[in-house]
TrEMBL record:
An annotated Gene Ontology molecular function: transferase activity
Organism: Melittangium boletus DSM 14713
Domain Amidase stretches: 25-463
Entry annotated with the keyword Methyltransferase: no
A GO CC annotation given for this chain: endomembrane system
Gene3D superfamilies, per the entry: Amidase signature (AS) domain (3.90.1300.10)
Protein name: Aspartyl-tRNA(Asn) amidotransferase subunit A
């Protein structure tokens, strides 16, 4: 039963449809993992066992009648606590929403249910998704399954832990500053930040329930899983307009077959404008580049000419302006004080504060800068299949107060730069990025991931590249003791 919980999602669905295993048996396997691991990891914060069992029994009964609900018929999975779920508590880690019971499903939840999924529960996150660790005053701290003394990342941290520990087959998270990719990297799973505009964020908190969408740029919904094929399955099910998010273009999903690995062309870098990156991270990326060259790929080292101070300021200004647009002055002041209190000076924090209190002209200038950065990265990627770069500056660090110093090879690094400094480039530009685990040097090592970045709107092609890369990076590895 324990091994059932670690099958890839698509294989679980195949086994249910072929009646090799029942939906109830799959659910029991996942609930067994919850019972074994959740007390020490604190990944699931709202467990919906009663309704999940009823849904699993209905799935088995429907199949016995010859009815197939969809590609996820009877498969258990979890949802980040930022996405509204009908009649199931949704808090976004925010005290004022501790008892919020939505009357509707977020679009991604509705689409998963329509595909036949069984919702096991909701996963932990930082307060209103505004941190790169996962802890809040409603549910407490979530721990990394590889080392409970270390962070799992954020803001989709609970989901990454649930997937890594076999408590969920698939998770839907959100990412406005690395929030899918950072936890995937720290926990050793696969995560997709799609092109900005591929998957609707309707029903995501923030914005606040019942209010217009607050965050109009840089934020996306996306899946976390244990295989690239499961990311592809989720993208197929979740993408496309929903009639609520008016900025979603009608781009149909396309099947892009993977090619032989040697037929791909890769750029790579471990250098983003001189930012510190751990020696372990540099060694792993250089090793991957050599392996790809040995496999016959065209591989070249390169970084676009970007001013990363400007990237960080632009990201912060847009986030601050759009999140702050819904806040009363007192809440904006508290948010500004939170980022100002972080140790060390950072362009990311200055940008957020400038956005919170900026004028409309400042906001429109930031949007213009975003367009310029988007064009530079798109031009840089022209003629290449993917760009390989670090997810963060190091593997998972030990738990610490938000905003405290980080250490990268004995060098002190500002908190936001050390966690979100690398991934937010692709939130600014909207490019799709897959975080995927690299081989570990030894059984005692923490997971280490790589960002695989592709051209805008080329999500399906990027997933095919990532799938080919697993020929040399290998499959998901289960954390010890789960």
């Amino acid at each position: 039963m324990q091994e059932l919980a670690f099958l890839p999602t698509h294989q679980m669905a195949q086994r249910v449809l072929s009646r090799e295993v029942s939906s109830v048996e799959l659910l029991d396997a996942h609930l067994g993992q919850v019972a074994r691991n959740n007390v020490r990891l604190n990944a699931l914060v709202t467990l919906d066992e009663g309704r999940a069992r009823a849904r699993a029994r209905e799935a088995d009964a429907a199949l016995a009648r010859g009815e197939v609900w969809g590609p996820l018929h009877g498969v258990p999975l979890t949802i980040k606590d930022a996405f509204e779920t009908t009649g199931l508590r949704t808090t976004s880690g925010f005290d004022r929403l501790a008892r919020h019971m939505p009357e509707r499903d977020a679009t991604v939840v509705a689409r998963l249910k329509a595909a036949g999924a069984v919702i096991v529960g909701k996963t932990n996150m930082p307060r209103l998704a505004l941190d790169t660790q996962t802890h809040n005053t409603v549910f407490g701290r979530t721990n990394n399954p590889w080392d409970v003394e270390r962070t799992c990342g954020g803001s989709s941290g609970g989901g990454a832990v649930a997937v890594a520990a076999g408590m969920s087959s698939l998770e839907v998270g959100s990412d406005i500053g690395g929030s899918i990719r950072i936890p995937s990297h720290f926990c050793g799973v696969f995560g997709l930040k799609p092109t900005d505009g591929r998957i609707p964020l309707s029903g995501h908190i923030p914005g606040m329930p019942g209010s217009p969408r607050g965050v109009r740029h840089q934020g996306v919904a996306g899946p976390l899983a244990r295989t690239v094929e499961d990311l592809r399955l989720a993208l197929r099910l979740l993408s496309g307009p929903d009639g609520q998010d008016t900025e979603m273009p009608p781009i149909p999903f396309q099947d892009v077959p993977r090619r032989e690995l040697k037929r791909y062309r890769f750029l790579w870098t471990d250098d983003f404008g001189g930012m510190p990156v751990s020696a372990e991270t540099r060694s792993a990326l250089a090793g991957l580049a050599r392996t790809l060259e040995d496999a016959g790929c065209v591989v070249e080292r390169g970084t676009p000419e970007l001013d990363f101070e400007q990237v960080w300021l632009t990201w912060g200004q847009l986030l601050g302006a759009e999140v702050g647009s819904e806040m009363p002055a007192a809440a904006r002041l508290m948010t500004a004080l939170h980022f100002r209190s972080m140790r060390g000076d950072s362009s990311i924090n200055r940008g957020i504060m400038r956005g919170l209190w900026g004028r409309m002209s400042d906001y429109t200038q930031a949007l213009s800068m975003r367009d310029q950065l988007m064009a530079k990265v798109e031009s840089f990627l022209s003629g290449w299949d993917a760009w390989l770069c670090p997810v963060t500056m190091s593997p998972a660090f030990t738990h610490r107060p938000s905003g405290d110093w980080l250490e990268v090879d004995a060098r002190r690094v500002q908190y936001m730069e050390g966690t979100a400094g690398l991934p937010i480039l692709f939130n600014v530009t909207g490019h799709p990025a897959v975080a995927m685990p690299l081989p570990r040097a030894s059984s005692g090592c923490l997971p280490l991931g790589v960002q695989v970045v592709g051209r805008r709107w080329g999500d399906e092609a990027l997933l095919s590249v990532a799938e080919a890369l697993t020929d040399v990076t290998g499959p998901f590895q289960r954390p010890p003791g789960v």
